[in-house]
Structures are given as structure tokens and as C-alpha cells.
Amino acid sequence: MTDSGSTGSMPTPASVGADEPTGSATPLAHRFPRATVILVALAAATVTAIGINGIRGILAPVLLTLILTICAHPVRTGLEKRGVPHGIATGSVILVVFVLLAGFTYTVIIAFAQFVTMLPQYSSQLAEIGKNLTAWLKSIGIGQAQIQDITAGFDPSNMISFFSGLLGSVFSITGALVIVLTMLILMSADAVYVPTILRQLSTRRPHFVTAVTSFAHNVRRYMVVTTVLGVAQGALNALALWIMHVPAALLWGLLAFLCSFIPNIGYFFAIIPPMVFGYFVGGWPTLVAVVVVYGVINAVVQSIIQPRVVGNAVALSQTLTFFSVLFWAVIIGPIGAILAIPLTLLARMILIDADPSIHWWRPAIGDTTETRAIMKADDAAAKQARKDKRILKQGPPRNTQREAQQEAPQSDQDS
After folding, report:
1. pTM of the predicted model, to two decimals?
2. Spatial distance between the Cα atoms of 151 and 133, rounded to a whole number of angstroms
3. In whole angstroms, what is the distance from residue 27 CA to residue 96 CA?
4. What angle do CA 291, 294, 299 make, to 5 degrees?
5. Which long-range contacts (CB under 8 A, 24 or more apart) does 166-169 make?
6. Which of 232, 290, 296, 302 has its CA nearest to residue 266?
7. Quick check: 315 and 362 in contact, CB under 8 A?
8. Each residue of 12-35: pLDDT tens digit?
9. DSSP label at 120?
10. DSSP H helical segments within 333-397, as ranges?
């Protein structure tokens, strides 16, 4: 005997095929629970991050070279349009980029050397700061072991050892520059084929080609604008510190330039050393002057000029921007903090921009152009609704009430 009720409630193969695709065409979200997909994706991301961290010694200079190659690509193509042969144009760009990198690196070395040389002059002030900090930490109940670990950094001999070791590691950057130079030569040579390769791919993967082109344009615009403004910011800071007789003004200017690439928190790393040494040479007035100068320059450059020039090239939320700095700094070190925005844009290009089916994620991660337009329309509608509500509460205008009172007797006479 057949149960007709149960038979009618069971889906037939035809109905299953009509509701959702089957076989290899079934989307992953339909074949597995969403929670499973999310957990597997997080596990894969964790394994990938650990792997990247394991090879950061070679990956960091390679990624730096990639960004430099993207930024220098229009210069090479511009020379080629003027009739310069491919080899000479590529070699010219490589030479200019490498000279700039080498010049900047050895300028940092000279500035560090001067700083280490003049540091013993302020040993008494540093020791006094260490004593005052020790007394304050004891007053709030911090243990002696923790106090010794914290105040050890104010021992002039330890600071000299630290900066001497840091200077020694800067010399090791020469090896990294060799990697950068080699990769720059190879990437620039391979970049000659990129336009043709993109044309080949555009017939089969147009969305991927669009995403790559947009990524290169946005990274180039962000890095070039940030570099120019960072040079101006560092030069103004160094000049102001030199006028205020703050020691190692050149070093702090270079630090301000580097920290201009680190969103949100770079300003705080750049301002602490000149504040300390400004206090040593001029007391509280110089310290306050350093804070004011840095605050004004940073506000004008990074809060007013840079957003107007960069525009929507970055399109990342403030929260994601801050997290990207922390994430890439942990994964590949200081270079990761400097290249946090380009690397996050690279990840977005691979995971989101190249796949049109998940473009709906873009507003959630910071591309709020359409969102702002919707919010503006909603605000205008809400404002109009409040205005209409006030008019209804106030009643008709007084002139209308007077006319109604005058017309009432006339209507009585007519009747």
C-alpha cells in the first residue's frame, strides 16, 4: 500500500533539477554548509599567512620590487613612445630606481651614524628620565622585574648598543638591495610583454584583465602621491626641527617620510623621538612646538591634500586599513607596514575584483561611492519628512486662517 500524502511531499528528480543545479555545476555554497566553507577558508588563510611569514626574508624585497616596477612602468612606456629602444628605456628606469633606493639607504645609514655619535651627550638626561619613570611605575604597583625591563631602554649604553646593532643591520640591507636590483631587472624585462598578454587574456578573462589594470592604476596613484607628499612632509619636519635645534633633524625627517606610508599610526612613531630630544635641548616649550609643527603638517598633508589627490584609488575602510597595517607588519615585517595598502589592494584584486559574482562585497570593505549617494538621498528624504511633519503640526498659515474667517460670514449671507 502506498502513502499518497508522503509520496506527494517527496521531491522528484525533476523538481530538484528545477530548483538548483546538480553535479559539477552546483555552487560550493549549495554542496556544503556555509559554516564549513567559512571555516575551511579561514584555515587556508591561516596556513597561507604562516607560509608567507616563513619566507618573508625573500618575499619582502620581491613585493617591494613589484610595487616599484608597477610605479615605474609608465616612465618606461613613455620613453618607448618617444622612440627610445626597449632595452635602453628599461635600463634607464632600472638605473634611476636603484640609484634612488641606494641613495636613500645610505642617507639613512649616515643619519643613524650621526645619531649614535651624539647620543652619549644626553646620557645624564636619559638616566634622569629612567629614574623618574622607575619611581612612577613603583607608585602604581608595577613589579621590580617589569620596571627593570622597561627602564633598561633608557640606559645610554643599551641605547648605543641597540642603535649600533640597528646600524649594522642597515649595512645588511646591501644584500637586500642586490635582490631588489636583480628582481627589478627581471621584472622590468618581463613587463615588456604585459600589455600584449593582457590583450590575449581579455578575450577569455575580461574581468580579470580589468581588475589587474585597475589595481596597477590605483597602486601607482597611491604610491606616487604618497611618496611626493611624504618627501614634502619629511623635508618640512626636518627643517622645522633644525630651526628648533633638535638633534638628528635629518634622521627624524627620514623617519617622518617612511612613516607617511603607514596609515593611522605612522604619525605616532614619527613624532616620539623628536619630542624626547626636543625636550632635552629646549624643555617643555620645544616639546610643545614639535607637537604643534608635526600636528599641523600631518593634518594638512594626510587629512586634506592626500585624500583629495588620491580620491577613490584606495577604497578601503578605515578599520580595514588599520588592520592591514597590523597584519602585514606581523607577516612580513616593517616593509609590510609600509606596503600595507598596496598589498591589501593586491589581495582584494585576486579575491574580489577579479570575480564579478562577489563584487557586492566591495561596499563592505570600503568602496562607498554608491553607499554615500544612497545615504545622501536618504538624508534628504528624512529632512523633507521632518519638514512636512512640522508643517502639519503648525496647521495652515495665518493668512489662510484669516481668509477662511472672512469667507465664513459671506457664505452665511449668501445662504
Report:
1. 0.75
2. 7
3. 49
4. 120
5. 166/112, 167/109, 167/112, 167/113, 167/116
6. 302
7. yes
8. 444 444 444 444 445 555 677 888
9. G
10. 334-338, 340-348, 362-365, 369-394
